[in-house]
Amino acid sequence: MALSRLDNLYRQVILDHSSHPHHHGILDASTNQIELNNPTCGDVIQIQLVVEQDTVKDIRFSGSGCSISTASASMMTDAVIGKTSEEALALVDDFSKLVLGEELTNPDALGDAQMLSGVAKFPARIKCATLGWKALEKALTEGNQTELNSHLHCD
User: Fold this and answer.
1) Which of 37, 132, 135, 139 could form a disulfide with 32 if both were Cys (CB 3.0 to 4.6 A apart)?
2) Where is the NIF system FeS cluster assembly NifU N-terminal domain positioned along the sequence (predicted)?
């Protein structure tokens, strides 16, 4: 019975992030920007960041995607604001491990995103859940790219 309540709580948090995404929209000025799409399902995301002194000061995302993709991107933005680039990239790695069903030493660092661990049971949804995180990784590692389109190809 308690597990059912916990599952319901997780579903509610995911639905809330999907229906009312945090940090959704466009930044007036950004230091890093990327667009990434998943041609398998049609999800598209644009990530804009303001990185100052190697710290994520602000982040926004826009685009169109399923509820898992949108909720995950919303959770990701909450998790990385105020983090250094290195810390944000470590969170990307941790999230990838989480949705692949691997154990994490500190899942709480992911904030609400840890609630997406159940995606591991649905391999077709992993690409949806990781799209925003992969876009963040590319935006941080490829620097000041203002017009960069990329495809996420997952085998």
Assistant:
1) 139
2) 10-128
Query: 17-47 in b/e burial notation, b at 16+ Cβ within 10 A?
Result: bbeebbbeeebeebbbbbbbbbeebebbbbb
Q: Does domain 2-151 match CATH 3.40.50.720?
A: no
Count CA within 13 A, CB hemisphere, residue 118.
11
Q: Is 0.85 surpassed by the pTM of this model?
A: yes
Residues in contact with 89: Cβ distance below 8 Å, sequence separation at least 6, in sequence order: 137, 140, 141
Q: Where are the domains of the chain?
A: 2-151
The predicted-structure confidence for 5-46, as pLDDT tens digits, reads as follows 657 767 888 889 999 999 999 999 999 999 998 888 789 999
Does pLDDT of 81 surpass 90?
yes
